[in-house]
Amino acid sequence: MATIHDVAERAGVSVTTVSRVLNNRGYISESTRSKVYQCMEELGYQPNEIARSLLKKQSNIIGLIVPNVSHPFFGELASFVEYYAYEHGFKMLLCNSHLDPVKEKEYIEMMRRNRVDGIIMGSHTLEVEDYRNLHHPIVTFDRQIDSEIPYMSSDNYRGGELATELLVKKDCKKIAHICGNLELDLLANQRTQAFQDVVSRHEVEHLIVQTDMNVFDQQQYERIIAELFREHPDIDGVFATSDIIAAYVVQHCYKLGKRVPHDIRIVGYDDVSAASWVVPSITTIQQPIEEMSKQAIELIRGQLAEETIRMANILPVTLIERGTT
């Protein structure tokens, strides 16, 4: 197996020069850099990444833990996080927690052992103390778990306002809100608070339906929606806390022979790509997923550089009106 000494000898340079090329440090002429890389390829030399990370005290790896990457929101989030991580010289380690605290803790320990440079948490099943004890740069998504841990979020309250105000404006007389389980301490609960405030202000009949604790388990959506329409067939407006739930509502209305948007109007949340694919396309509250991902990477980089960073990072949302309203 070729060593760094073999590369240096073949390229006719010092081991120090090869090391500088590998670590992109100091001035190296382009011709020398090209020659070193050519010799590495000819010899099949692979740098020891573990040794390099120990030397630099930096692995150039960022961990991302999400509940389930198959969920469209987290799939798009992971894609953008990886893109911006790579833009800044980082690789991404992706883990699915499936909202299992044991699994989440094991992944965090794995990341600690592998000396990741930072962790972006899109899953939050552990106690706050577990996050405080990480001693790694960390950013949380949609949950404020500590005054000294930065978090990334969209303006959930404004999103809930925009969605509910649209349904009221469309003259909906009985509006259902389908949301995640409110026992979970998530910033997304502000969408529900906004819903309650708007319907109360306009004195509109309403009801709230929660999922179980596994808010991303899509198998429960059909059951919840079927029960909702069986008990309240006169519903003429639905604000769903995700586009996926909204799509299930559209599907169930089709089974019942309800016309969307003539008989019932539906608003989702997130604006994942699939929201514009279904028929009718889903009116939704657009979260700036790309910008949130980009800023999450910047927050990790800021912590690595020991810069002063903002703890609360809340981005604006946008109402995207489509076929369901």
TrEMBL record:
Record SMART domains: HTH_LACI
- Cite the entry's keywords alphabetically: DNA-binding, Repressor, Transcription, Transcription regulation
This entry's Gene Ontology molecular function terms read: DNA-binding transcription factor activity; transcription cis-regulatory region binding
Q: Which InterPro entries match?
A: Cro/C1-type_HTH, HTH_LacI, LacI/GalR-like_sensor, Lambda_DNA-bd_dom_sf, Peripla_BP_I
Give residue ranges for domain HTH cro/C1-type.
3-43
Q: Which domain of life is it from?
A: Bacteria
Q: Which residues form the HTH lacI-type domain?
A: 2-56
**CDD domains, per database record:** HTH_LacI, PBP1_Qymf-like
- In Swiss-Prot or TrEMBL terms, this protein is called LacI family DNA-binding transcriptional regulator
